[in-house]
Amino acid sequence: MAGMSPTDRTGMGQPLSAHVNRSLMAISRRAESVDRHTLAKTFVVAGSFSAMLHSADHQILYGRRGTGKTHALLYLADLVEETHDVAVYLDLRTIGSTSGLYANQQLPVSLRGTQLLVDTLEAVHEQLLTTAIETRVSDQGGLLQGLDELTEAATTVEVVGNVERETTVGGSAEQATSAGASASWGPDGPRGQVTMSGRDRRSVTASDRLRRTGTEHHQVIFGPLSRALARVTAALAPARLWLLLDEWSSIPLDLQPLLADLLRRSVLPTRGTTVKIAAIERRSRFREPGCDGDYVGIEVGADAASAVSFDDVLLFDHGGIQSRQFFAELFLNHVRPRMPVTDDAAEFVATAFSRTAFPELVRAAEGVPRDAINIAALAAQHANTATIGIRHVRQAAQDWYLRDKYAAIAGNEPALTTLRWLVDEVVGRRRSRTFLLDHASGAHDGTMRDLHDARLVHLVRRGIVNRKRPGTRYDGFAIDYGCYAALLPDGEPPSRRGKSETWLTDPHSAPPDSVHVEQLLVELPGAARSVPRQRKPRE
């Protein structure tokens, strides 16, 4: 590809852009469908994120769907195995064998939670047993013994129910005697017969029966479990055990603190272990408060050393230079296994996209790699054999918006109502796509949580301070590009950011004097009203 223009033709008589477009359409959308070796080669390091991810601290990795949490954990698993550590990767969607047990609200939380703990420990045991058999470890005998103790600690059974004891004692006796004599005269002379008989029978019966009626319940006792894990990690030393838990938010909310408490009491304190959890922030509950200041679960920031947000890491400068570099490398790494291309990401982008199309694609992705891949694939489909242009990107963004994001809330009428109001108010009336929400109210608004999870609105900046009200903090949001692009007439030039959007995407920038925070605020009560705009003071 080096030295070739987008109009050069391959030996098969087709323009190079046709092969590039086919390669873009063939990129896998899900990390779990790709082998780890390929994942390691396609992973793009964003700044110092790789070093932070590879730290031995326990971490919670937050991110919405499509931000690359699974890719990062599988990349980390490959990375730690190269350093001869032991990685146990668990997709929590696949834990357990009883369909619907965890989500069955008719069963008590204690029963569902205990079964979840048992299923998780069994999955960990299975992977560690494979390691003991197939991998050379420093103390294989100690590892196997530790796994036996882990199994025993995780499968203790208690019968809960009534106990009934029945005792029966009985006896019988019988005695009988008889005697008799007889005589007769026959041809051979006299004959005589004497008969005697006796009978004596005695019987004694005794029985004692203990019957338990109830249900077998599993018990997970943290003390033996902690000792078993300590024996396992001691046998693996000097290798470190990395427990990587993916799809945490697939667990019902009321059970999440119970599994988190198991980790806090038995895994996090164990020397030689590191736990990484991938979760959706607004769909996770790691801690349940108790009495007298106690709690069940993990206290983020204390028990887990740090929390990393993929949404924050991938925001960059919202379509600026860093974002374009990241996504250029992302596409190059994914296309390279399918066709020989240059090692220069900028050169690849110049071949696949027109000059204005790629910056528009980066803006349309809103910092979400999976959305970028899907929009690029749809744009390549629209372009067919031609170089991808801005018109193809906009059409693809609209298609992806309607096909995936908008469809995700099709049955959620409150979220749909809020989205319609935001589009009418922010895009239609204010001619913008960015707005501010009070941090306290926005964080607890259910419809905003649903829209954010569906990637219909995007959090672009946290904790904005208003000079006039320094005690109140605000969060900056942007309406998804797919909705915004649908309102742009054909042939309009690339989208440009206004002053209000420029400073919102810069974490070190304060609102300029020409921008009044009050003018960007919206309220989301039941009727979804905007805050009255204040007039700009005269210069």
Number of strands: 12
Based on Cα principal axes, name the global outline.
globular
Distance between the termini: 56 Å
Tell me the strand percentage band: 15-25%
Helical stretch tally: 20
Mean pLDDT: 79
Helix content: 40-55%
- Low-confidence parts, pLDDT < 50 over ≥5 residues? 2-7, 157-161, 527-539
Question: Radius of gyration, rounded?
Answer: 36 Å
Sequence of strands across the biggest β-sheet: 2-5-6-1-9
Let me know the largest β-sheet.
Answer: 5 strands, parallel
Structural class: alpha/beta
Region (Disordered): 167-204, 491-514
InterPro entries: P-loop_NTPase
Protein name: ATP-binding protein
Structure notes:
The structure is a single chain. This protein has 539 residues and is an alpha/beta fold. It is 41% helix and 22% strand. It is built from 20 helices and 12 strands. The radius of gyration is 36 Å and the shape is globular. The strands form 4 sheets. The protein has a 5-stranded parallel β-sheet, sandwiched between helices. The N terminus and C terminus are likely disordered.
Keywords summarizing the entry:
single chain; 539 residues; alpha/beta; five-stranded parallel beta sheet; three-stranded antiparallel beta sheet; 20 helices; 41% helix; globular; disordered C terminus
Secondary-structure topology with pairs:
Layout: H1 16-25, H2 36-42, H3 49-53, E1 59-62, H4 69-82, E2 86-91, H5 109-134, H6 140-154, E3 156-186, E4 189-219, H7 222-236, E5 241-246, H8 256-267, E6 273-279, E7 287-289, E8 295-297, E9 306-309, H9 310-313, H10 321-335, H11 345-352, H12 357-365, H13 369-383, H14 390-408, H15 413-429, E10 434-438, H16 439-443, H17 446-453, E11 457-466, E12 469-479, H18 481-485, H19 499-504, H20 517-520
Parallel strand pairs: 1-6, 1-9, 2-5, 5-6
Antiparallel strand pairs: 3-4, 7-8, 10-12, 11-12
Helix pairs in contact: 1-13, 2-4, 5-6, 5-8, 6-7, 7-8, 10-11, 12-13, 12-14, 13-14, 15-17
